[in-house]
Amino acid sequence: MALVKAFTQFVDPPTGTTTDVAGGGASVRSPKIETSQMGFFYGTHQALRDISLKINECAVTALIGPSGCGKSTYLRSLNRMNDIIEGTRVTGSVKVDGEDIYAKDVDVVSLRKRVGMVFQKSTPFPKSIFDNVSFGPRIAGLTNRAQLTEIVEKSLQQAALWNEVKDRMRESAMALSGGQQQRLCIARALATSPEILLMDEPASALDPASTARIEDLIFELKQNYTIVIVTHNMQQAARISEITAFFCQGRLVEVGQTKQLFTNPTQKETEDYITGRFG
Amino acid sequence: MSLHGPDYERRLVWRHFLGLMFEWACRLTTFLSLGILAVLLFSIGRQAIGWLDWGFLVRSNSYEPREAGIMAGLMGSLWLILLTAIMSVPLGVGAAVYLEEYAKPTRMTKFIQLNISNLAGVPSIVYGILGFTVFVRMFGLRDRPEEFILDLWFTEIRFFLPLGRIVLSGACTLTLLSLPVVIISAQEALRSVPASLRHASLALGATKWQTVRHQVLPAALPGILTGVILSLSRAIGETAPLAVLGAAAQLSFAPGRIESVGDAIQNPSKMLQAPFDQFTAIPLQIYGWINDPKPVFEHVAAAGIVVLLVVLMLLNGAAIFIRQRFQKKIRW
After folding, report:
1. B17 exposed, middle or buried (CB, 10 Å; 0-12, 13-18, 19+)?
2. Between chains, do B204 and A125 touch, taking CB under 8 Å as contact?
3. Are the beta carbons of B305 and B290 closer than 8 angstroms?
4. Is pLDDT above 60 for A24?
5. pTM attached to this predicted model
6. What pLDDT digit, counting tens, does each position of B254-303 carry?
7. Choosing a second label site near A24 at 20 to 30 A (CA), which of A200, B24, B88, B208?
8. What CATH number labels B49-329?
């Protein structure tokens, strides 16, 4: 409980002092995503306990921690992808823009349109590049060809893939390289014009050059999107994120400005993890 | 025993020898089955030579071997397979999609699953008895068939309830027969679609139905078609259930009382009556000819078998062609 308290003080500074957590300068903004005392169960197994975390708009928040610590579970609960798994349950509250996304009247389909997701393994559909990127808008009911073409081009440009694929829109997405496929998946997620982008180790299967491109891309995207990224690579977290949250054994151990968390962690567990003594 | 030296070398030779033996054993089994098929085709082909001609295809049957033809059975089989496909594909794929994508693994769905697997192994003659009771006789609820007339503006379609020994009864029976295999193979195909594909689609804000319709089904389609081909091929060769239904062994007209190609061209509206008319099928005709006391009918039967095999191959070829086109469309 002390941890949570410490964290709350950190993000919600006492009136009078302003801690610029977002790094964007607007500390008065309300958080884009807010989970409070959130728990998560796979059947009877509790995978997350008492997670209270505020995630700011237009910033990159990195979730780090050893394997099996619950960071991916946490990420997937933000767009309710965990609903797909039988017998899962969420306690506490998860709010996006102040609205509880687990409330009864929430439509999961429209939630997932707002909260996009990029998976660890790139999962292009076995269709053409154009059909991949236009899938989201199309299933949302957009049929106008010109409009779709425009969205596809814009999304691919945002994902820094346009120049490589503009002449091969009709070709299968499966023919792209691993790094290109992952950027295609990012473009595909952007095409539904989400507000939040969840990334589950998006670069872990890529070579260093492709990883660098994805990181540059995330740096660009954070101007317009709220990004939450799970990563095993601590250098990556340090390079791209403003805020880092350290998870361990289903708990949120520590959260803070990335620089501070890596140079001067307040918790022993965090220090052990980032110095490589465990995990 | 050691991992170096002559001991190891000797064992290595033996290991390579075993591998080679196995490869040749596999090769032998493959060529053996191929050889048997070749012998079969050759012997039947030889018997059919001189008997299989265009006239054989367009004539109806006769007691005179030289006048016998397979038109009635050919048309009957084509009608059966068309109606069976129309009924069993949507039913089978629908059931498979429900079981794989929607149904929760409750005791009930497990029970259904088990029964589908069991039904796939039920002998076809049992389906014949089932079809006879349900479709031909409709449980004997009526003493005598009652006639109904469906009035279309250009023609009318007559049918009876209970249905009686008509093409539709046969097709419904063959549908029941092929459904379990269609369902199981479609389930297999749906299961082989990676979960990541479904997740990616759902994460983009697709509904469950959109995910199934636009991602899962297209990816599973080649596999589904393979199952459909297999079960329809089995259905077209079935004799027992049709015989139990009481289908005629020999008829002088194709379904719809069509007596010749010219008749069909002059009265195309007769086609609409075909599903509700009496029928015979290629395997039934072959069976009839083989049982004929005149030994010369052996040649007629051989010609009939060749026609059956060709129809089978043409249908399979068409299905494989369609499958290939879909496979090209989903570009892995």
Report:
1. exposed
2. no
3. no
4. no
5. 0.84
6. 898 888 888 888 888 888 888 999 999 999 999 999 998 999 999 999 99
7. A200
8. 1.10.3720.10
Angstrom distance (rounded) from CA B170 to CA B247? 8
pLDDT in tens, A72-94: 999 999 999 999 998 999 999 99
Give the domain ranges of chain B: 49-329
> Do residue B205 and residue A135 have CB atoms under 8 angstroms apart?
no
User: Judging by DSSP bridges, how do beta strands B146-151 and B156-161 pair with one another?
Assistant: antiparallel
CATH architecture of the domain A2-274 equals 3-Layer(aba) Sandwich (3.40)
Query: What are the tokens at B290?
Result: 């083989």
Cβ-count burial B87-103 (b if 16+ within 10 Å, e if not): bbbebbbebbbebbbee
How many beta-carbon pairs under 8 angstroms link A with B?
Answer: 71
Banded pLDDT at A279 (limits 50, 70, 90):
low
Q: State the complex-level ipTM.
A: 0.86
Q: A162-221: per-residue pLDDT in tens?
A: 999 999 999 999 999 999 999 999 999 999 999 999 999 999 888 899 899 999 999 999
Query: Any idea how long chain B is?
Result: 332
The residue extents of the domains of chain A are 2-274
Q: Report the b/e string of A192-225 with b at 16+ CB within 10 A.
A: bbbbbbbbbbbbeebeeebbebbbebbeebbeeb
Nearest to B331 among A119, A172, A189 (CB): A172
CB A224 within 8 A of CB A58: yes
| Nearest-angstrom CA–CA distance, B278 and B275 | 8
Min Cα–Cα distance to chain B from A172, Å: 5
